[in-house]
Structure formats: C-alpha cells, structure tokens
Design brief:
single chain, mainly alpha, 2 domains, two-stranded antiparallel ribbon
Length: 239
Amino acid sequence: MDSNGRMAGELVVKALQRGITPSNNAEYQRLLAHYGADPEFRSLVGQIASGMQLRILDVSETRGMFVVPEKDSPFAIRLSDIRHQTMSPGLKAALVLVHVAIAAQFYPTTDALEDDDYTPFPASIANFRNAVQSLATRMKEGAVAYDGHKAEQLEPGWAYLCDVPPVIIEAQRTTVSSIVGIIRFVLRHLEQNGFVRSIDSESDDDSQQFTPTYRFRVQLREMSLARLFTFAQEVRTRS
C-alpha cells in the first residue's frame, strides 16, 4: 500500500505538471496503465486528488490525466488572483472575456465541445480579434444577461475592449493596450500551459494560426462561466 500511495501521489503530480504527456514521459505512461488496470490504485488516486481538492475530469493512457481544482482549492485561480501592478480591473476582466472568445472560436457549438471526434479548425489572430470585438460589442449593447457579482466583475472588461484600438502596429506583440495585444498575451499564457499550439510560430502578423489541445477541450467542459461561453458561441455563429 505504501508503494501504491507513493505512485498515486506521483500520478496526481504529473497530471498537474505542464508539458508532461504519456508520449514524452515513460513513467507517466506506466502510472496511467497501472491506473487503468488496478481498481485499488485507481481508488487511491481518487482519494489523493480529492484530499488536494482536485477533481479528475478525464483519464486516458494516450492523452494523460486531466484534473481541475475545486472552488476552494489552493490550486484554483480566480479573477482576483491576476496580480500585476499595471493591470487595471478593466484589463483583468478583459482577459477573461478574451479567453472565452478564443474558446468559442474553436468550439462554436456545445456539440462540437462534447464530441471527442470533432477537430477544431485552426484559428488566426484575425479570427480571434473579430470574435473579441463582436463579444464586447454585443455585451455593451446589453445582449447578454448576467448573474449578480459576475456583472460587476465583467462589465469593466467589455468597456476596456471597446475603448482600446484593435491593434498598435509598432508593438502589437507586447502591449495590452490593443485588442490584438491582449489576445497575444492570452495565447502566450495558453500555449505555455499546454492549452493551444501555434501552427506557424515564425509568423508575427494577424495570419498566425493556433489550434487547441485536448487539455483545453476538457477544461472548457468544466467552465464556470457557462452562460457567458454559450453567449460567446452564439455571437460567433451569428457574426
């Protein structure tokens, strides 16, 4: 049992690590195979994850284990956790809306998100820019209903996005003072955490394309801002 306990802990840790996949880590692959074959080990992994306030969403010997933090977990990230001295409340809320718009661009319908056989089309910076602008404009027009505190948190976001220019050519890769700059900031974060991949990383213009990973799909299924995501999907398909 001690050996099983250690291995169960190792499997949960590997599920939390960035960039670790069964294809590039033999030990991870071995632990996943053990998880699939041994009910006692599987139960132990579930107990350890639960004790860490993590929820196991999906487990595959080829793709890996995917976990998300519960609401009060120390691993949970909240809007208020985005800390940077130059980030205003409007920018922080704008980052959330850009995340949602990017997700809706990849998965325009609920069926597409739920279907593991669905392959999202690659999307460019220009596609994301249009999606973000449409979402912010429709929210400004009052076309989306809010839930209590979410209105207070997200209204500065669409206001911020409606005020900044679409792009600042001289510094579009580094500034968050334009829609394209914010999109690139979010995509960099998503790529670093294994949620998207750049198809043409050498490109630095609006034609640069990205594709989502399976990890992104699994995470989106548990999105807490479900109503906002649904609205973003509607905006994307009607634009």
